Amino acid sequence: MANIRHIRKDYTLKVLIEKEISPNPLLQFSEWLNEAILAEVLEPTAMALSTVSSEGRPSSRIVLLKHATIEGFDFFTNQQSKKGKHLQNNSFASLLFFWPELERQVRIEGKVQMLSNEESDNYFDIRPEMSKIGAWASPQSSIIPNRKTLEDWFKEFEEIYHNKPIKRPPHWGGYRLVPELIEFWQGRVNRLHDRIEYTLHNGAWQLHRLAP
Ligand SMILES: Cc1cc2nc3c(=O)[nH]c(=O)nc-3n(C[C@H](O)[C@H](O)[C@H](O)COP(=O)(O)O)c2cc1C
Prior knowledge:
Blueprint: H1 25-38, E1 46-52, E2 58-64, E3 67-69, E4 72-78, H2 82-89, E5 92-99, E6 104-114, H3 117-125, H4 129-137, H5 147-160, E7 172-186, E8 194-201, E9 204-209
Antiparallel strand pairs: 1-2, 1-5, 3-4, 4-7, 5-6, 6-7, 7-8, 8-9
Helix pairs in contact: 4-5
Bound molecules: flavin mononucleotide.
């Protein structure tokens, strides 16, 4: 293995200071997301979603953010997957964005709720046809015998839905993480990074600086 001990980078691109940030972290987030998109980072909406099993065991995976508003952060998935099972038993979860090109990280914690059928339908309807078939064909996170089986299931559903509108599978849908804590991290020189954390108290966001 390569010697990774000496891999380190100094962060010098930007600063994060109180007088320049929004009092609302959701607005601040939308500004940073826009900047990530403008900077053409590879997957600006990719976020690590961490959930916890009923035995208290955490698990993380990447999902794509599909909608971010003042109410929360929406993503879509198979609700019978591992993350779906975790969220059914324990609705606390966290999200993490890392935009290395901007030397930025955003950390979000809160509770997850299911989106309504209507909200899930609305997003399902705008997905490409092949992704819709994929949602029917893949029993996400179940053990399958081999790759060919999956491709056969895909073909079967392609035939079933040939020239027909593809409905959303009942087990596929959206979730919204409603944040209670959001931290913005901006890399700085000498590891003296900027960290601004917002926490929600009685419906109002409070802001403080954390030591790096
Ligand atoms: C860039 C990227 C984007 C992904 N987007 C999603 C997504 O939006 N929804 C989803 O269910 N899985 C997505 N995945 C796959 C998940 O990381 C994961 O493999 C899958 O959801 C099963 O996770 P689970 O077994 O923990 O439920 C994505 C993976 C990558 C690498």
